[in-house]
Amino acid sequence: MARPQIPEQHRGRRALRRAVASAAALLAALAFAAPAVAADQPATPRLDPDDPRGAWAGYSVGGGTPAPRARSAVGVAGMDVSGHQPHVDWQRAWADGARFAYVKATEGTGFRSSTFDAQYRGSYDVGMVRGAYHFALPDRSSGAAQAHYFVDNGGAWTPDGRTLPGALDIEHNPYGQMCYGLDPAAMSRWIADFSNTYHSRTGRFPVIYTTASWWNHCTGANPDFGANNPLWMARYAPQPGELPAGWTHRTIWQHSDRGVFPGCQDAFNGDYAALRGFAS
Question: Whole-model pTM?
Answer without folding.
Answer: 0.82
